[in-house]
Design goal:
Helices cover 26% and strands 28% of the residues. The protein is α+β, with helices and mostly antiparallel strands. The chain folds into 3 domains: 3-236 and 408-460, BirA Bifunctional Protein, domain 2 (2-Layer Sandwich); 252-388, YbaK protein (Alpha-Beta Complex), CATH 3.90.960.10; 477-578, Rossmann fold. Strands 3, 7, 8, 9, 10, 11, 12, 21 and 24 form a 9-stranded mixed sheet that branches. A hairpin with a 5-residue loop joins strand 5 (94-97) and strand 6. The protein is globular, with a radius of gyration of 29 Å. The structure holds adenosine-5'-triphosphate and magnesium ion.
Length: 588
């Protein structure tokens, strides 16, 4: 492709809404364009890279025997009502009506649709196992679209669904998909970790997320170098502090004026925060949107609440749990906001972190303005409807598996896989007949890769101050041949020869033949992140060019033939992704 003929529109400055490098660079290089909040289009080079990620995903899915199909993004509400998720998905689901007022959604995911196909078309054990996938546009009306392609409201996902006769079959399908995901993300050039994850609204009992490591990532994970445990922080179990043997002291109400936060009361009374109890106040909304109950969660004052654990304990959708309105919860439960403690509450569900029963003589709110109670003890002074792990794990906390201190890291969730079990097959009625003609529910798994989020994650990990550093495997082009002086006959002729030789050998080449200053061309080449640059300048007469890898600082002089040969060698070595993955058996 000749740059003089290509539609490009680079920006010197990224728009103000772009905060992280991948968003800034994808916009500046003109690879993506914003249409509305969380809605992006792909321009020629960006779209080529999307296609390359899709091709890698396809190869690895096909290699596992998964079959590609393509379903509509428009999904009838009835199917979601059957599974119960029409309500569960909440405001994130993009709902539309047709001219006859029939309800539809723009699919945020496709469990219901794929289960529907299988319930209609699979009836015998002989048709199982089966894995169907698609690469398709998804819609989620995210509360906070941000970071460009990372959290968009329209994005491309590869979603696969496995259908097995039994749990053992599901375990095998899950392992295969896990393996395919490792290969996909490795070939895309990502540094990532697979971590245990919560299954959220998807249901099921086991899940892993694939997290591309990045400081700007929205996900946090913990891992243990001693035993290999790795999980999202929302998923990770915590270890309670050892139970204390101290005798219980008499409870004592104390005057603590204006101390509404844990830090304030601890400072006022000269206590460490781990000698206090923190209260968090929520309302649970029913399907009609009215408050159905109030929930007060208690954790030790030095911890943070893990919202996912609270939501799992309540067994309601995430969107149904909101912070309580102060006046309303005070009127119903007798709490006093800022001074809420576990003693004397009524008409609310009290949930206590599993650590609290073992702790002695803590200080809690008195449910009376400007007062706290010292020496509060579980069992003697208060109890809870649920005592469960509610707290967020922190860097340095003991590993829930082996007790060694855990470490934390941030990441971008590029994929997630779920063992769904029979949740969807039972709710939608997808059964098969076994060898004895007995009906059994099909055992399912679900497997997603964020294709466009993966593109952003690759840029997030592979860039420098000047631009993107594409891995060859998903670079929009492999080589850029730059003519230093526009109109120079010798330079143009040699560049054209190199361009043709590379293209003939199957490389994807850009020829920068624009009437621009050399500095502009070099800047653009760096911004675009093309892995190899061959610069044709003053020494063109002598058949000498400069060969430079985008990842390296130094350029090397070579004859044009050597430069072509070296570029082809480099591309051949890198085009399937980092060498350690090898080449899948059925990919040529
Ligand atoms: P998140 O926790 O980031 O909201 P999720 O767990 O809801 O994601 P899944 O339902 O597991 O997402 O979807 C599968 C994959 O689709 C994710 O691993 C992610 O890579 C991608 N994805 C999900 N939401 C978005 C989004 N808003 N924009 C871009 N990609 C997304
Ligand atoms: Mg997920």
């Amino acid at each position: 492709m000749r740059l003089s003929r290509m539609h490009i529109n680079t920006l010197r400055e990224a728009p103000a809404e772009a905060e992280i490098p991948s968003h800034i660079l994808l916009l500046r290089s003109g690879m993506i364009r914003r249409l509305a909040s969380g809605v992006y289009g792909f321009m020629p080079m960006g779209f080529r890279s999307v296609r390359k990620i899709e091709a890698i995903v396809r190869q690895e899915m096909d290699a596992k025997g998964a079959q590609e199909i393509h379903m509509s993004a428009i999904q009838p509400a009835e199917l979601w009502k059957e599974s119960g998720r029409w309500y569960v998905m909440g405001p994130e689901m993009w709902r539309v009506k047709d001219r006859r007022e029939r309800e539809f959604c723009l699919g945020p995911t496709h469990e219901e649709i794929f289960t529907d196909i299988v319930r209609n078309e699979v009836s015998s054990y002989r048709q199982l196992p089966m894995n169907l996938y698609q690469i398709q546009t998804k819609y989620r009306d995210e509360a906070r679209p941000r970071f460009g392609l990372m959290r968009a409201r329209e994005f491309v996902m590869k979603d696969a669904y496995s259908f097995d006769r039994d749990r053992a079959g599901l375990d095998r399908s899950y392992e295969e998909m896990f393996d395919a995901y490792v290969r996909v993300f490795t070939r895309c050039g990502l540094r990532f970790r697979a971590v245990e994850a919560d299954s959220g609204t998807m249901g099921g009992n086991a899940s892993h997320e694939f997290q591309a490591l990045a400081e700007s990532g929205e996900s946090e994970m913990v891992y243990c170098d001693a035993c290999g445990m790795a999980a999202t922080t929302e998923r990770a179990r915590t270890v309670d502090a050892p139970a204390e043997e101290t005798a219980m002291l008499p409870a004592e109400t104390v005057y603590t004026p204006g101390t509404r936060t844990i830090e304030e009361v601890a400072a006022y009374l000269g206590l460490a925060t781990d000698r206090t109890i923190k209260a968090l106040l929520f309302a649970v909304l029913g399907e009609e949107g009215a408050v159905s109950e109030y929930v007060i969660a208690f954790i030790r004052g030095d911890h943070e609440l893990n919202m996912t654990k609270l939501i799992n304990c309540l067994g309601v959708p995430e969107h149904a749990v909101v912070f309580a309105e102060e006046a309303d919860i005070e009127a119903v439960t007798g709490c006093v906001c800022g001074f809420t403690g576990p003693m004397g509450l009524h008409d609310c569900r009290v949930i206590a972190d599993s650590e609290l029963p073992g702790q002695r003589n803590l200080c809690a709110g008195a449910n009376k303005a400007d007062h706290h109670i010292k020496n509060v003890n579980y069992g003697r002074d208060y109890s809870a409807a649920h005592v469960t792990d509610l707290k967020l794990i922190r860097e340095g906390d003991p590993c829930p598996v082996c007790g060694a201190p855990v470490r934390t890291a941030r990441g971008v969730e590029v994929g997630q896989i779920y063992k769904l079990g029979t949740k969807y097959s039972e709710s939608l009625g997808a059964y098969y007949k076994d060898e004895n003609m007995r009906d059994s529910p099909i055992v399912m798994g679900s497997y997603g890769i964020g294709v466009t989020r993966t593109l952003a994650a690759v840029v997030e990990q592979n860039h420098d101050a000047d631009g993107i550093l594409w891995p060859v495997s998903i670079a929009p082009y492999h080589v850029i041949v730059t003519i230093v002086k526009h109109g120079d006959a010798a330079q143009t002729a040699l560049a054209e020869r190199i361009y043709a030789a590379l293209a003939d050998a199957g490389a994807e080449v850009l020829l920068d033949d624009r009437d621009e200053r050399a500095g502009v061309k070099f800047k653009d080449a760096d911004l675009f992140g093309i892995p190899v640059r061959i610069t044709v300048g003053k020494k063109a007469d002598g058949d000498i060019v400069e060969y430079k890898l985008r990842r390296e600082k130094a350029a090397v002089e070579k004859s044009s033939a050597e430069a072509v040969a070296e570029a082809l060698r480099f591309i051949e070595a890198e085009r399937f992704g980092p060498a350690k993955t090898g080449r899948p058996a059925d990919v040529s």
